[in-house]
Amino acid sequence: MNEIRSGERARGLFYLTASVLLMLMAVLSSYLLYTHYVQPAQSSLLFQICSVKGVFDCSAVNTSPYSSLLGVPLGGWGIFFSILQFFLMLLMLLPESASLRRLVLHFILLGAFAGFLAVFPLILISHFLIKAFCLFCILVWIVTILYFLLILNRVKREYDETLTASLIRLQKECLTTLRSGISLLLISLVVIFAAVLFASLFYQSRSMEASRQLELIAANQRMEEDLLRNFYDKKPLDMNLKNTPLYYGDAKARVVVVEYMNLDCHVCRRASPMMKSLVDKYPGKIRLYLKQYPLDPECNPYIKGNGKGFSCRASLLAIALSASPLYREYIRAFMSSNRDMDDDLMREIVGGLHLKQEQLNRMMPEEKARKILRGYIEEAESLGMDGTPTFVINGRALPSGLPPYYFLDRLIQMEIHRHYGGMR
Questions:
Q1: Overall CATH class of domain 2-217
Q2: What pLDDT shows up at residue 95?
Q3: Residue 73 β-bridge partners
Q4: Which among 275, 273, 271 has a CA at the least distance from the CA of 402?
Q5: Can you identify the CATH homologous superfamily of domain 246-420?
Q6: Residue-range domain boundaries for the chain
Q7: pLDDT in tens, 104-113
């Protein structure tokens, strides 16, 4: 009698412990699923706990390309796992037959083992690919491992033998039980429940993704409207284009775009074909000028740190060539390169122009080029510029950086309407 009561207490403790672990996993996974779609407030305690610099970065992990599987975020898979395991636990309470109960225990063990195995690739992905860890993910991994160990302990207690012997007996009994009709019904029930549960989670994930996309679109629209409002609230400046050659477009066009750029700036190189496309889209209406703003303390006193001087030399050479037919060819050579600037790239591009130093000196003395460059830099600072590229359209500056193509296109269309009275 005492052994029966002891066994019942052990089973009761097992069900209670398993339920607590599964509920904890479901709560943690629900939070991870929520934060996959909604960025938590930075002032929240949970965000601060999981954003310890150099220790945890939940946002990086939970929004990485590796945070979803088959269209469902990993947080959703955690919910799927915990609900399915809890459902199997309930089934384990129902059958009066020991063989059916052990068949369900076998299903639970297989699921727990799959969850246990999934932990290790996730650790490797976080360490080597994402290079960050999520505190709540780590807690889910710990709970998953504890749950698997709990199930192993239950299997051992079920037969009161060594773990290896218990696993072998469980496997043999399940193979025998699978031949009965009731076991097939039980398996069908589990499969149907799992399919419905997965379909529900998949639908919920897609709905949350659609809501997030709509929110992002609305936020982008608000941001664009604010940018346009701030842009037109500014008083137009009279841009000094003396010593600045026309780079592209019609010299008589009324929409004047000035781009402050750095020849060693990869974002500026991405901007180059985009601006060419916009000028070509509205022939005769846009003219584009380039002004040099090297992000190098060798010639730019507003840039901190140590520089190598490559950007400064490249900018000075661009200014020296400004009156030459080679000016555009020189700029395009840099804009079409995907290499960082160094001596080899400089020699390669200058060598392609077949120019000698004496010819450059005749085009423009170095001191004059330096004076023009200092003027560009001071002018950029007066605009509050803090990076490249920065676009100034008809005297009004946009924030530094590369705006989306559609936004620049919209803004230029508005300027064409203002200066030409409509699209023609």
A1: mainly alpha
A2: 61
A3: 68
A4: 271
A5: Glutaredoxin (3.40.30.10)
A6: 2-217, 246-420
A7: 999 999 999 9
